[in-house]
Design brief:
Strand content: under 5%
Number of helices: 5
Number of domains: 1
Largest sheet: none
Number of strands: 0
Shape: elongated
Order of helices and strands: HHHHH
Helix content: over 70%
Radius of gyration: 17 Å
Distance between the termini: 10 Å
Structural class: mainly alpha
Length: 96
């Protein structure tokens, strides 16, 4: 498996810094537009957002909404990790 040069690694980290999602924005969306699962759409989780909206009709969605307050940081970290792996794979493919 090819290794990335330091320059490419720095480029990837710079792009991740520019494209990563903000936990503060996610929390603001959770607080103000949580009933619409805006924070999940923002964090790139549209399927779970739709499921959460549908679950509001059976009241479990409100519990899910409260739990999201505790897991937003991990969702932001997951998004950052996915960006990193996608970019590394892209750069490795270009290097071959």
């Amino acid at each position: 498996m090819a290794k990335l040069s330091v320059d490419r690694q720095m480029l990837i980290e710079a792009r991740i810094a520019n494209e990563q999602k903000s936990a503060a924005v996610a929390y603001a969306l959770w607080f103000f537009l949580g009933i619409f699962s805006a924070h999940r759409f923002y964090l790139g989780k549209p399927m779970s957002a739709v499921l959460q909206i549908l679950s509001y009709f059976v009241l479990i969605g409100f519990i899910w909404w409260l739990i999201d307050a505790f897991i937003i940081p991990s969702m932001v970290d997951q998004h950052r990790a996915k960006l990193r792996s996608d970019m590394i794979a892209s750069h490795l493919a270009m290097a071959d």
